Amino acid sequence: MSKTVFITGTNRGIGLATVREFASRGYNIIAHARKQSVEHNELMAQIAPDYGVEIRPIYFDMTNSEEMKEAVKSFLKEKAPVDVLVNSAGIAKYGAFSMLPLATVREVFDINFFGHLELTQLLLRQMIKNKKGVIINVASIAGIDTDKGNTAYGASKAALISWTKVLAAEMAGAGIRVNAVAPGMTDTDMAQLLGSEDRKKMIEESAMNRMSTPEEIAKVIAFLASDDASFINGEVIRVDGGK
Hints:
Blueprint: E1 4-7, H1 13-24, E2 28-33, H2 38-51, E3 55-59, H3 65-78, E4 84-87, H4 102-130, E5 133-138, H5 153-171, E6 176-183, H6 196-205, H7 214-225, E7 236-239
Helix pairs in contact: 1-7, 3-4, 4-5
């Protein structure tokens, strides 16, 4: 029987690469995006037959509780339980703390942290009932290595990492594993939010002297979801090319 993975933030970048990777491994996919679009629907419809899997787009704003609850409730009524949850959606906002509006910090936390907490709670009940499941949070090395200008994004990813470890400890007895992936600089639209000098600095800090590709991150996520990682729990896997 095919397994089902729920992936957030599948419009582009790591989320989209993760859709392709899980599809190549035979998973049926619930592909989340914030807003419904013809482009997203068509892209998912193109990927699915390539691998003989089912991909169902699902749409809700990560900061809208009612929208999220209705979408998940509708899905759970119709479909098999979710075996794997990949919390990938996220935004990045940078700026010196003294000039950073608190509204910006709240926005980043709402999407990068609180939205994923709420979604996980909604899906966790069924995982607990079935006594199995895997949760993978897409964090960042920004949540591990501190740097100036990272009050919003870095702190939100640090919170995600801390929660990963707490949830892993709480859920191990229920047969549910929880881990996080912490990518370094990755070749996505988000990387372009940084200035060219900041991007150059981060690339130079990697021993491999380059950015990762979204596909390289997706492969690590898929590994953590697999039975090959059956005894990995509560870990944060850096994927940054080394120091």
